[in-house]
């Protein structure tokens, strides 16, 4: 992924570049302080993602986003802002901003938000390829194509920032198991559910205990990452759709708000977040069933 950083603060640009490189999120193809030549540089270098500060001396970030959009720039925008209020957030979204990162810069929040932008960019590129292919062969519109269970599950996990986690495969198999059982109102014991998923993956009997333990660890890790991701979104703007929709449904909301405060205050967690695996799995199953009904 190609990034361009626009910020009149050298320290902020350096920190962002370091996070992008250290976490293997892509390459920084250019950076600027927001001067008059910045827009020309962006058009020349064609980054996938532009990180842009809200307050800059020559042109504020929202106005620069508008101008770039007007001139045909197709990449995503992540806005950096120390001042966040609903009016400003609404104006930024209307201008074309996709995500926010709160200042002062927090490494966890930056990584979480940028991973989300990468997933969105990859998804959009895939959809463009599919639509182009359908246009060539004269197939019906993509929106009319029924969504498979895998597509629905991965879409939900992508919204929560964990489609790339190792546990996403385990979650997919578990939802397949639950879907086969039909009309699930409550989950069986987790160990039993993990065993069914492991068998569905092709695990032989002698390896079941080891694989069940591994599935448990991967799923708990994925849920923990989802909590961090949603808390990062909520810390920037609690009206973001993914935060508003998933945080209260899938998780203990008190745990989410605790992580939000820690991120906002750059505090080191004093204890791990409480993870309610059964609630998460049941809600993921119900969400999958509901979305498939909507597309049928």
Give the topology:
Elements: E1 2-6, H1 10-22, E2 27-32, H2 38-45, E3 49-53, H3 61-70, E4 76-81, H4 86-95, E5 99-102, H5 107-137, H6 149-159, H7 167-181, H8 190-200, H9 208-236, H10 241-250, H11 253-264, H12 277-295
Parallel strand pairs: 1-2, 1-3, 3-4, 4-5
Structure description:
The protein is of the alpha/beta class. It folds into two domains: 2-119, Rossmann fold (3-Layer(aba) Sandwich), CATH 3.40.50; 149-295, no CATH class. Helices cover 60% and strands 9% of the residues. The protein contains twelve helices and five strands. Helix 5 (107-137) packs across helix 9 (208-236) and helix 7 (167-181) crosses helix 9. The radius of gyration is 21 Å and the shape is elongated. InterPro entries: CheY-like_superfamily, Sig_transdc_resp-reg_receiver, ST_Response_Regulator, YcbB. Keywords: Phosphoprotein. This is Response regulator.
Distance between the termini: 35 Å
Question: How would you sum up the global shape?
Answer: elongated
Low-confidence stretches: 139-144
Cross-sheet strand order for the largest sheet: 2-1-3-4-5
Helix content: 55-70%
- Total domain modules: 2
- The total count of helices amounts to 12
Mean pLDDT: 85
Briefly say what this structure is.
By secondary structure, the chain is an alpha/beta fold. It has helices spanning 10-22, 38-45, 61-70, 86-95, 107-137, 149-159, 167-181, 190-200, 208-236, 241-250, 253-264, 277-295, and strands at residues 2-6, 27-32, 49-53, 76-81, 99-102. It has a five-stranded parallel sheet with strand order 2-1-3-4-5, with helices on both faces.
């Amino acid at each position: 992924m190609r990034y361009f950083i626009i910020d009149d603060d050298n320290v902020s640009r350096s920190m962002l570049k370091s996070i992008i490189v250290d976490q293997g999120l892509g390459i920084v193809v250019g950076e600027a302080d927001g001067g008059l030549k910045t827009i020309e540089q962006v058009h020349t270098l064609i980054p996938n993602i532009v990180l842009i500060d809200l307050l800059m001396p020559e042109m504020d970030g929202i106005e620069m986003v508008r101008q770039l959009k007007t001139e045909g720039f197709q990449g995503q925008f992540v806005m950096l802002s120390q001042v966040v209020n609903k009016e400003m957030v609404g104006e930024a979204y209307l201008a074309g901003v996709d995500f926010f990162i709160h200042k002062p810069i927090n490494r966890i929040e930056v990584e979480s938000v940028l991973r989300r932008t990468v997933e969105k960019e990859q998804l959009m590129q895939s959809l463009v390829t599919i639509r182009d292919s359908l246009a060539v062969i004269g197939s019906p519109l993509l929106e009319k194509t029924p969504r498979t269970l895998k597509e629905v599950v991965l879409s939900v996990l992508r919204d929560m920032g964990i489609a790339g986690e190792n546990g996403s495969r385990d979650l997919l198999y578990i939802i397949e198991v639950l879907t086969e059982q039909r009309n699930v109102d409550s989950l069986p014991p987790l160990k039993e559910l993990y065993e069914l998923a492991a068998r569905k993956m092709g695990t032989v009997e002698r390896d079941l205990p080891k694989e069940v333990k591994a599935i448990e660890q991967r799923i708990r890790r994925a849920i923990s990452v989802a909590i961090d991701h949603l808390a990062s979104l909520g810390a920037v703007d609690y009206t973001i759709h993914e935060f508003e929709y998933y945080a209260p449904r899938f998780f203990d909301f008190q745990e989410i708000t605790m992580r939000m405060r820690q991120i906002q205050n750059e505090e080191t967690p004093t204890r791990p977040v409480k993870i309610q695996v059964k609630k998460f799995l049941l809600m993921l199953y119900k969400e999958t069933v509901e979305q498939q009904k909507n597309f049928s």
